[in-house]
Amino acid sequence: MKPRLRRARPALIALLALTVGATGGFLWPDDDFFALRKNFEIFGAVYEELATGYVEEIPPQDLMQAGVDAMLAELDPYTTYISEAESADLEIITRGRYGGVGLDVARRGGKLVVTAPLEGASGYEQGVRAGDVITQIDGQPAAGLSMSDVQSLLRGEPGTHVEIVIERAGTPQPLTFVLTRERVDLDNVPYRGFLGNSPSAAPVAYVKLERFTRTAAPEVRTALKELRQKAEAGDLGGVVLDLRDNPGGLLGAGVEVSGLFLEQGTEVVSTRGRTEKTNNTFRTSDAPLLPDVPLVILVNELSASASEIVAGAVQDHDRGLVVGRTTYGKGLVQTVRELPYNAALKMTTAQYFTPSGRTIQSVNYTRADSLTRARQSDTTFTTDEGRRVESGHGIAPDVRVAPPPPSPLEEALERRAAFFFFANEYAAEHPPVDASFAPSDETLAAFQQWLDAENVDYETDAERATDALATELRNGDYDTVTDEVDALRAALHKEKEAAFTEHASALKEQLREAILARSADKRTQVRASLRHDVQARRAAALLRDTDAYREALE
To answer: Which of 443, 441, 436, 440 is nearest to 529 (CA)?
Structure first.
């Protein structure tokens, strides 16, 4: 085996040279190419010796994977190796589709649960519900599976099958489903509608965009056309494009969505990288659908990448207002390179800059020296109308609106997934609810009783700090203060009990969302949540108040 690998190495190096020359778009300097060839040959020799001569047998694929992982760990967090098993994730990013059973799953309270079945997909059609606890997938106990393993088992070639076993509140015996994998097309726009229609004013359109795939812009265009047709005389008082929690996707999709509101030929974003091929300026290519309608872009700390491209372009050209919280700060461009055996490399090849010239990259990582220097945080940037904007810290909103922070009690209950599992019990004992559902005082009392009956121990940060203090005191032989610590614990427990009354409104909202998710589709859930959404309400108010809207743009 060793001689064969050694003979193959020069051919592999030659192939690498041809590949680099062809894909890089430029000729490598002789010194750089020599260093590349030299170190690649050393790496190949080390890999070969370890794989064939180490004291214990090492699976060659595991050894290579470890080498790749270690190499990429030195770079930015967005440069990643995508194995054949993970290729479905790439389909979601680029095309908004994948082969699977249409179940969103997550870990809650240490259990693998269904958070949402996709309407129309196999899981939904066969009766899998939000809240179901998955105990087995194709005979493998779910408790021992990583989330990557779970996705690999649930996804696959359309037409193939996967068996899952679930536990459901109110059902004494486990349920078994044989689901058929099929092509699942994700809806980039799960909801479109109007915000608080006023009879005396033109309606404010609202569009929720969850990701930027190839079909994102056409879907937003369709949604806006539908809303404009529904409005009296086709007149919209404003548009709210909700990019909160939108992690981004394709740069081109961000440019196309921006083009729905910006004049044709307007610069949206530019990229700068190591090669001429990565230095580009992207402009809108078509006439805008809504060039003059007042516009608000809603963002938060989870709005990233293409979401920030849209928000940055709208802000820099003073086309509308950015409302909410400062965005994530991901200003790096990734290019997907195909690798052998259906694998791929998602590699950072450039930074992107908003039309005013600022970068929004704010995430530090190991080898970020050159990139962090490029933040230009000490340089002043201005919009088309002369407003000052920041660089290197995400997109800061023009109007900052933050939802009320959760109470310590709410955070503690969320960590234990208490709202999630109580909603399962509630759904098992009550008929389905609709968008008008609002938990009552009796619902909140039943929640408290359930917590006691299930012995759900929800410890607040203050209680954990007290326990840590008690441990320190015991280790230091401070026995005389034991009574004081016990008194503090009792006071905190009493305060936690009172918090159910003090924070009843917020707790009911958490229960409302969890319980509604058990019987309503995504569209209904979004529509119901808007009634309690302080950021969306502020956006609509700004669009209805012409003076306030203009003042915020000054």
So the answer is: 436
Q: Which of 89, 330, 356, 519 is catalytic?
A: 330
What one-letter code names the amino acid at 424?
N
DSSP 28-74: PPHHHHHHHHHHHHHHHHHHHHHHHHSSS---HHHHHHHHHHHHHHT
- The catalytic position among 316, 508, 519, 533 is 316
Token pair belonging to 483:
């009574």
Q: Which amino acid is at 249?
A: G
Examine the residue annotation and report whether 479 is marked as an active-site residue of this protein.
no
Residue 335: name the closest of 267, 253, 251, 275 by CA: 251
Q: Token pair of 391, please?
A: 């660089």
Tell me which CATH homologous superfamily contains domain 191-333+349-402: 2-enoyl-CoA Hydratase; Chain A, domain 1 (3.90.226.10)
- 330 catalytic residue (yes or no): yes
Q: What is the pLDDT of residues 89-115, one digit of tens each?
A: 666 666 666 788 999 999 998 999 999
Q: How far apart are CA 544 and CA 539, in angstroms?
A: 9
Per-residue pLDDT reduced to its tens digit, 177-218: 999 999 888 899 999 999 976 666 789 999 999 999 999 999
Cβ proximity of 408 and 460 under 8 Å: yes
The whole-model pTM stands at 0.83
Q: Which of 299, 292, 322, 291 has its CA nearest to residue 387?
A: 322
All structural domains of the chain with their residue ranges: 2-73, 97-185, 191-333+349-402, 408-520
Residue 318 region by backbone torsions, left for phi larger than 0, else alpha for psi between -120 and 50, else beta: left
| 50-53, Cβ contacts within 8 angstroms, sequence gap of 24 or more | 52/1, 52/2, 52/5
Range 97-185: architecture per CATH: Roll (2.30)
Active site residue 111: no
**CA 59/CA 64 separation, integer angstroms:** 9
